[in-house]
Amino acid sequence: MIAAAMPDENHEEVIQDALAYGRAADTLGYDEAWVLEHHFTGYGTCGSPMTMAAYVLGQTTRIKVGTGISIVPLEHPLRLAEEVALLDNMSGGRFLFGIGRGLWVKDFKVFGVNMEHSREIMEEWVEVMQMAWGSRSCKFDGRFVQFDEVEVYPRPLTTPHPPIYVAAQSPSTIEWAAARGLPMMLTFILDDQAKLNQIELYASVAADHGFDPGKIDHAISCLAGVGPTTQAVMDASRDRLIWWQDEFVRASTIFAPENLKMRGYEWFAREWEKQAIAGKYPVAERVENNFRINPIGSVQECVDKLNKTAEITGVSHFICGFESVSGKRGPVLESMQVFKEEVIPRVLTPRSKFGR
Question: Tell me, which fold does domain 11-355 have in CATH?
């Protein structure tokens, strides 16, 4: 549920549309719905993923609802632990906790968090949350947070806690997640070979720490849209995706010259430089690449792309962003229905899961 608002779009309508997609996912038989967190940009109008997740959980009866992602360094870890456990209990165990350290410079400046420490903060926050969920009381004396012994309520319904998914791109984050057996949420901007490289790195580290990589439920996020022909879907969605990608670059500012040497984000700077050298820096080129590697197109095109991704990566858990290809509720709902009825049954994986 991207909830992106172009400059001329009404924010209430955008948010109500996103909620409608969550309800439709439940009705149509999808497995999950995911809400995003963004601040200070039309790229995404949901600044509180816990609030939106709570609403969608209350409006649905079957699907699981996750944060994709919650920017954990911007919050207090005990507050997050309470909210996650509360949603877990309120929903009967239907909440999924997707986390990340954040990529938008302005967020950290406005909320007063040192972005150069985002990785260490996220790691410490997860340690605190798992401690809070796993014991009746806890105390902590860390680098970034300290507190005396407290009892944290409620206890999670799910044992030991709701599933945690980690948005991981840089090798250091992948290795950290693997060492803890936390599944990754892989990005839509990478092709299948790049995703496989990340999964192989994860598998090596996970195995060294006693985890069976074959039992880890990684999820792949993707842009999705189905129509009568591939060209028709691309033509209908191109302008919106160009704006969306351009807004990401403009609003995140992580790739601005003054931020390219940001401690902890060196990998992103190197990748951006490689993209520029390869001629993939222009927004229009990146959008065409999105068309190429994501399940956008005719029914057959979507089936072929998903099966190829599943075969190469071994991952059969897909999170589909349908509204990325249209700002109108009707076309998005139609695409969701056709995708569920005609695409998903032909994705030949043993335990496929589909969220939106």
Answer: TIM Barrel (3.20.20)
